Amino acid sequence: MQLYGVIGHPISHSLSPVLHNWAFKKFGYKDKVYIAWDITPKNLEKFLHNLDIFQVKGLSVTIPHKQNILSFAQKISPLAQKIQAANTLVYHKGIWLAENTDVYGFIQPLQQLNIKLQKALILGAGGASLAVIYGLKKLKIEEIYISNRTISKARQLAKNLGLKEISWEDKEKLRPDILINTTPLGMSGKWQNKTPWNADLKGIKVVYDIIYNPNPTLLLKQAKKFNCTTISGLEMFIYQAQQQFKLFTGQTFSFYEAFNYLNINTF
Ligand code: ATR
């Protein structure tokens, strides 16, 4: 048996085991299994140093380990190095490689759209916003604004990465071509009935919420009322897993098959 899995804390909400095990079955890998490990920051090092005993060959890495994992890897991809965060560890030719597939996951749904986007507004300046910022830069979006409840964090990112900042109170005055939510507002649990946007969405072409549970979020429901094109976190989630699965096995599963499978079996 070869083991794969996702490590994070908390981890019970993760859809990764359902998706990766579906894909293993689809490609006939009877010797590969994917599980969820709830690993606290305190236990991370101990866990990582025992991977070989259990024949672990690949890991998805999520909150709060995306940055700390870099010090464990023997090789870090240029992208993960640039962002200083990885969501994938893969054992290849005797070494552990750290990679970031979140940027790919974020970009893919946007590349499918045939909409010219020049001005973007990112809500939130936490860990998840970094892959979004690099994704938008890769797409050559000219003007990128960032807004955060705690303005100092937005200011810091704006300064370091050449973005513009706008205060949390004034952000609704801006009319970007694309609005992206990276805050937990709208996520299932205590944030479910919340939205990070307290105004109409007139003139905004695309609204992208990186939350995947619930699907759609309150923000995306609002956006549909204003005829904006919407992208859900489920799309980003599936694409990041698609690239991860390719790193694990060399195989590529179909986005649409995965999307249908998750929609039927999890929501
Ligand atoms: P992640 O890795 O998911 O980005 P994080 O690093 O904890 O998680 O960042 C969460 C982001 O959501 C932050 O930008 C946070 O704003 P603060 O910097 O002010 O904490 C934002 N956020 C969390 N709860 C929020 C709320 N109730 N209203 C507005 N923003 C919120």
UniProtKB/TrEMBL annotation:
Catalysed reactions listed for this entry: shikimate + NADP(+) = 3-dehydroshikimate + NADPH + H(+)
Keyword Coiled coil: no
Superkingdom classification of source: Bacteria
Domain Quinate/shikimate 5-dehydrogenase/glutamyl-tRNA reductase: 114-172
Residues at which NADP(+) binds: 124-128, 148-153, 210, 233
GO molecular function terms attached to this record: NADP binding; shikimate 3-dehydrogenase (NADP+) activity
Binding site for shikimate: 14-16, 62, 87, 102, 212, 240
Domain Shikimate dehydrogenase substrate binding N-terminal: 6-89
The SDH C-terminal domain, residue ranges: 233-252
One of the GO BP terms on file: aromatic amino acid family biosynthetic process
Active site: 66
EC number: 1.1.1.25
Described function: Involved in the biosynthesis of the chorismate, which leads to the biosynthesis of aromatic amino acids. Catalyzes the reversible NADPH linked reduction of 3-dehydroshikimate (DHSA) to yield shikimate (SA).
Family designation: Belongs to the shikimate dehydrogenase family.
Complex and partners: Homodimer.
UniProt cross-references to HAMAP family, sorted A to Z: Shikimate_DH_AroE
Name under which the protein is recorded: Shikimate dehydrogenase (NADP(+))
Organism for this UniProt entry: Desulfonauticus submarinus
Gene symbol of the encoding locus: aroE
